[in-house]
């Protein structure tokens, strides 16, 4: 049914046979509706007898050349073209078989030449001759306008269909978006409800487990209490009666024995009564071992840090935990440390005498200092300072020979120059050696780096 040649050959064949040219413009892939349409037997028979059928693809070169001459608005489209090259009918899309058949028959009818009648001459037989009369320019223009109007209608219809499709697609998209949002909300709510229900189940299970644990703990405690009560009852029944505790006899002693260890390695043992005090023991020690004792000493427990002072002399030996026997170490101490001197009245008198001497020495010191400042006697001021220091030390109980003895080297002191002058009140023991015979001229030869310029 379909012509295999080119478009030019199909047009020439149609003109020779006075047939309608049927051109079908399709896509690369035909639809099932279009295929079923052209498989109709009656349609194929009509097209084979009265038409030259040609199938073109819109994307092929012949299809593009055809669309330049005859605008193809919609694919697929069926063009019914007469022998004069003008389209008789343009059928866009896929139509019914009956409508397509009617359109083809109408095109065949319009494509046939119109017969023209000639006048009869005499009595001769009438004859008819058919000839094709060319269409007038007005008819051609009218047909072209109709074709353009129809093409505009098809174009508008196509645009309306596209707009309707776009509207439908937008409505479908919006509907789909709303459905997706509602589905997401429903899913979120469902998950939230599931999580709440799961938390409730967890709380119920946790509460049940806690109750089970508490119940087991209570049962265990009850069982342990019963077991303990049973064991206590059994042990109480089997336990013998307690015997009277034996009273420990306190050790009885009649006297206290003390061992004195001296610094020279010797020792002495003395025995005292139970009510003897530490002061009695010290007095007895001074009487029995006067040659071995230092001037001032202290008593301490051997191999211990306990040292007894004068405050402990009034306590008994038993109160000081020295009974029934103990070893005491005799240690010498400095004069500043208060020691036992044999009586309290002599200490009070000596202290009062020292205070009186200190008070009397203050005016004497002041007079000597003023006399030294006026007449430049440094030895008198030094002697006054030494005497005052001795009196102060004696008042404080320090009888050390190092502080009570005056300086035995007046010649050396005279040759010393104090770092700080006496009028500044300095009492430093740091002095400089100098020669009183040196003159100012000799001293001027010395520069700042201790070198003499001759």
What is Rg? 75 Å
Strands, count: 11
The rounded distance between the terminal residues' Cα atoms is: 151 Å
Q: Taking strands numbered 1, 2, ... along the chain, how are they ordered across the largest sheet?
A: 6-5-9-7-8
Task: Please outline what is shown here.
With 454 residues, this protein is of the alpha+beta class.
General description of the model:
By secondary structure, this protein is of the alpha+beta class. 50% of the residues lie in helices and 13% in strands. It is built from twelve helices and eleven strands. Strands 6-5-9-7-8 form a five-stranded mixed sheet, with no helix packed on it. Helix 3 runs parallel beside helix 5. 11% of the residues are buried.
Essential attributes:
five-stranded mixed β-sheet, four-stranded mixed β-sheet, about 450 residues, alpha+beta, 12 helices
List the helices and strands and how they pair.
Elements: H1 7-17, E1 20-26, H2 32-37, H3 41-50, E2 51-57, H4 61-69, E3 77-81, E4 87-92, H5 97-111, H6 137-238, E5 255-261, E6 267-273, H7 278-288, E7 297-301, E8 307-308, E9 325-332, H8 345-375, H9 378-395, H10 401-404, H11 410-414, E10 416-418, E11 431-433, H12 440-444
Parallel strand pairs: 1-2, 5-9
Antiparallel strand pairs: 1-3, 3-4, 5-6, 7-8, 7-9, 10-11
